[in-house]
Amino acid sequence: MSNVGKKTGRERGEEWWQTDIIEMRPGVIRLRGYEIQDLIGRVSFPAMIWLMLRGELPGKEQAALLGIALGAAVDHGPQAPSIAIARMAATCGVGINSAMASAINVLGDVHGGAGEQALAFYGDIAAALDAGVTLADAVASRLDRIFAEEKSYVPGLGHRFHPVDPRAPRLIELTRDFAARGIISGRFADIAEAVEADVTRRKGKKIPLNIDGATAVLYGELGFPPPLTRGLFVLSRSVGILAHAWEQSQQSGRNKGPLPREWLWAYTGTPVRPFPQGDDDSK
């Protein structure tokens, strides 16, 4: 008989949602072993995120760098699909939670997933470095593969609105500052800048790092695995989503679509035509 069969109903129930994250019972809340009352007022929100995801409290500088990454990507205006959706949902009379959920649900591979893709890309290069390949060769080999076998763009580079994404240089500058103080290694910044330089050589023009490529550098330096970076982006962008949903809810617009009502879509279907007449029309 299996151990499962030998366990009591209570034991099975306790193990059903077993977790290392939180212990809770009447009068007690512990997160990763820490009493909640000991954390409140002593631990910043970025540090709390770190504790919940990683299981240990970060150093002060680690928490600061995580906060920098989270703060950089909070908003990009109503032309960003997630923000536009939050605002449209708010005009439909739904609650703020529904407006936020509607927006967050579109943060997928195309809108919101590039940071995860960029860090996975950097990680392939980092693995090659660990195997003894030089940075230049590791970058060149990975770019050869991405252009030949996968897709025509490199995650983390270029922006459809900004010739130079104003957030990226500042994030790299701060990464270099933290590396100079020994908080992080600076390895992922080296990788990102080498990728940017190699793509510039291949394309004959500079395609700068964007917010996704830059935040991927910070998350990589801090040791977060690529899938978590998408969740971190969702946390970050939720701030802007909340702000826009709230602002829109305070305005008078109702049932606002993606365009003003006098701007209609282009119809490309069959031209107007008569309904076919037949002997059975009266049936």
Automatic annotation (TrEMBL):
GO cellular component: cytosol
Classification via CDD domains: CCL_ACL-C
One GO BP annotation of this record: carbohydrate metabolic process
GO molecular function: citrate synthase activity; lyase activity
Xref: Pfam families: Citrate_synt
Keywords: Lyase, Transferase
Domain of life: Bacteria
NCBIfam families, A to Z: PRK06224.1-1
Name of the protein described by the UniProt record: citrate synthase (unknown stereospecificity)
Source organism of this protein record: Mesorhizobium wenxiniae
